Please model this.
Amino acid sequence: MSEKKEQFGSSFGFRMAAVGSAVGLGNLWGFPYKMGKSGGFIFLIMYIVLAILIGYVIMVGELSLGRKSGSGVLNTYKSIGKKYWPLGWMAFLSPMFIMTFYSVLGGYCLRYTIANIGDMFGGSIGTGGLDSPAFFSAFTSNMFSASAYTIVFMLITVAIIMGGVSGGIEKFTKVAMPALFVMLVIVIIRSLTLPGASAGLAFMFKPSLEPLETLGFFKILATAGGQMFFSLSLGMGIMLTYGAYLPKKESIEQKTIQIIIADTVIAIMAGLAIMPAVFAMGLEPAGGPGLLFVTLQAVFNGMGAIGPLFGFLFYLLVFIAALTSSISIFEVGVSVCLDFVRGRNKEVSRKKVSVILGLVLTLFSLLVAIDGLGTNGLYKPFGFIWLEFFDLLSEGIMMPLGALCMSVLIGWKLGEDYIRKEVTIEGNRWTTAKFSMVCYKFIAPLGMILVLYGQLQAFGIIG
Ligand code: PHE
Model:
């Protein structure tokens, strides 16, 4: 109990950690593709409006509740009222389920980074002359290597987490995020200067009303909402947990605005890095893992001798983005476990807790890795491949439900003063109080119901 509460050491450090959490696979493969498929500018505008009306208030809410309680997500909700324990459990379990497949995908990124180094120097760890789809299926369906890379990714995550909040998370993200930004700019320059790049820009940005007819307004809105939530790391206990480490002098309102702007800008930049290159090579963008691995590796293969260098740079960038997200996901679990041990007045060692949690999560991750995206004939829970199953539980159900409940809780139960006390501590301002309360009460809950509906539909649970 007596040990000093952990905190971020600087404003910049918190910003990098939070933006590091937000910027991840969601920005790099989700956003550009979904924007292109869902009407370009229409999607972008919906995304921004939803980020302002819903994302903004949910993030302020999460950071405030987290900082007020100063503990992990289970205790945060328990401290508000005993009966809110299900909210705490959703905020805890949802990121744990995400971790099971995020680590596998992170492992894929690592494999691709190394494969491109191999191709640069002609070693046996390269793509071995296989074309892109063949390399992808050979690697993902190889239980041994997919598992090995997953374990390595998990080990790196745990190693950073073991260093603590300021000595691990902050120290790493302070270097990693600026580096990621520089790499992204280099890749964008290459991508935009390829002949035929403009078709990619048209795919992403051209305003088209057609998706409104083919997909429908609500479908696009739900897609934009789901994407916004995942991309901003909301509804999964992340900002609740990081909020607990945010010093009281920091302005929650200002930080939230900075995180949202940075995440959105990087999502658009990711599109500028990816889509022009895909079209310049005469390829069609796919969705999900297909885009990030199959299509993009084909792009690098098509670039000639310089291809592996850009491939290396790009996958390293994606790997870092995945890593700074995965440490935030993992930290939710660590902080809950640390609270638990402290609550029983036992000695706490962050290192020990990290290792044990890492082992448990690795076991679940291996299920996803061995499943090889459903190619290895493993049992399919409810007909889903394991990655989709864990994604359904977290992103599909608990994320929107948790955020919906939190919004209603703040809007209708805790009220304006409760949040104001935390946000305006040490002279900080909450300029948007009135607007925010309207959002908590009406707009965010409605939006979250729509997102929940959209998610269940996307997973084929409802028609
Ligand atoms: N926001 C991250 C991304 O865009 C993913 C993430 C989700 C991180 C949930 C933390 C929690 O990929």
